[in-house]
Design goal:
The structure is a single chain. The chain is mainly beta and about 100 residues long. It has one domain: Beta-clip-like (Beta Complex), CATH 2.170.270. Helix content is about 0%, strand content about 30%. The chain has strands at about 10-15, 20-25, 45, 55-60, 65-70, 80. It has a two-stranded antiparallel sheet with strand order 1-2. Strands 3-6 form a two-stranded parallel ribbon. Strands 4-5 form a two-stranded antiparallel sheet. Strand 1 and strand 2 form a beta hairpin. The two termini are about 15 Å apart. The structure holds S-adenosylmethionine (SAM).
Amino acid sequence: MKSKDPKDTNYMFFMKEGKFCIDASKECSCHSRGVFMTTLGRGLNHSRKNFNVKAKKKTLDRNTVILLEATRCINKDEELLFDYGVKTGEDGKQIDWLKQ
Ligand SMILES: C[S@@+](CC[C@H](N)C(=O)[O-])C[C@H]1O[C@@H](n2cnc3c(N)ncnc32)[C@H](O)[C@@H]1O
């Protein structure tokens, strides 16, 4: 599902383990300039009830990274979804699709 308004899109990963957040909207050291905004993880939508991947914090070459791990077998044409782990928008407002 593609968002209609680019201003609605953000790439904050809130991790429960260790209670920290990775801001993936910023350029990182592991992807070259221009490429980092096209990494696949940024394109994943949210589902609280029907997620099929889970974000895991790992250390890779001394960098803290997020790996998306399948929680079950995923069919070839199935959309990858994970639970964003938030219940409201940044401003505290209810967002319908966060309930799905
Ligand atoms: C990390 S981006 C996901 C990729 C995004 N759909 C795109 O096309 O770039 C997060 C944004 O996607 C949209 N989104 C994520 N999950 C959604 C859902 N279940 N229903 C509707 N929009 C969703 C929201 O606009 C959200 O801010």
